[in-house]
Amino acid sequence: MKLIFHIDVNSAFLSWTACGLLEEGGADTPPTDIREIASVIGGSEKSRHGIVLAKSTLAKQYGIVTGEPLFQARRKCPGLVVVPPNYQLYVRKSDQLIRMLHEYTPLIQQYSIDEAWMDMTGIQEAQADPMGFATGLKDRIHRELGFTVNIGISVNHLLAKMGSELQKPDRVHTLFPEEIPQKMWPLPVRDLLFLGKASEQKLIKAGIKTIGEMARYPETEIQRLLGEKTGHQLYEYANGRDDSPVRGEREEAKGYSAETTTEEDIVTYEQAFSLLLAQCDVVAARMRKDGKKCSCVSVTYRMLDFRTRSHQKKLGNPTDVTEEIFVQVKNLLYECWQCQPLRLIGVALTDLTSDDFRQMSLFENTENHEKQ
What we know:
Blueprint lengths: L3 E6 L2 H14 L13 E4 L9 E4 L1 H5 L8 H7 L4 E3 L3 H15 L6 E5 L2 E5 L4 H5 L1 H16 L3 E6 L2 H8 L7 E3 L5 H4 L13 H9 L5 H6 L2 H8 L1 H11 L17 E11 L2 H21 L3 E11 L4 E12 L2 H15 L5 E12 L19
Parallel strand pairs: 2-4, 7-8
Antiparallel strand pairs: 1-6, 1-7, 2-3, 5-6, 9-12, 10-11, 10-12
Helix pairs in contact: 4-13, 11-12, 13-14
């Protein structure tokens, strides 16, 4: 039997920021642990990129969600503490986590900076006691790295990830096929992976309110409601079916990428740019750490009908500067996206080089032109 773990850092940017602040504070005058108060990690409120990137458990109780503007979050919680992001720290913490996971299996597929799947198939101790093994791993991460994770356990990507979402934080959950009727089917349809608001409203209008009701509905009717491709994919997910393999990382990076799946639909450039800026900072920091520069920048997004779009641009000169990369990313998004609702968006840097050579043209315009 296949055995897949999904590792998900609990409110990663906030947890990692808290770890950094506690480490800086020292033993004599430790700062407040921002995980224990109403707090968020957010972009600059003075710029157009001020959105919630991560939130504490208490902030969540005020109805604050990832991706919403900071001014809106402050209305919900006037005493909200807003801390700026520290992407260099996040890269370091993420690398520490992935290195630890590689001690258990070489088959690690990193989904984002704070999520990864582990293929534990054939690992005797894990196969014998998946829950006990995962609990030990979860506790070791907390003890040695200072932050908590959720771990979902199942036989495929989908169910492992759905399992890790069941209850947070600092939990281990199994979601094996035989547990689907009890653990997954009672959940509202909105909790199904990649099911957006528009699809949710169509299903509810048809009287389908839970994942279980969707799973037992005729697939042809689901396709009629949501479209042939989307309906088929979500119907398969509702029944717990997913045959995608865990793809282990290559030894040498061929590129650097980051993707974000949001709680709410992305429908404006402001929302998208806030997430993309964070991603650019993370991937550029990883690239600089490895002494690389990129000559190609691309943006990828997935719409609610499961269609994935990607748009890329070759650069005249290799770069590792976040600001230069972000300018290209914004222009790419303007060219390929008309604000259709999204739940996933990402950036990738490829065509890597270690060469510092930069060819200047007599006709090069050094100003950055971007759409306002």
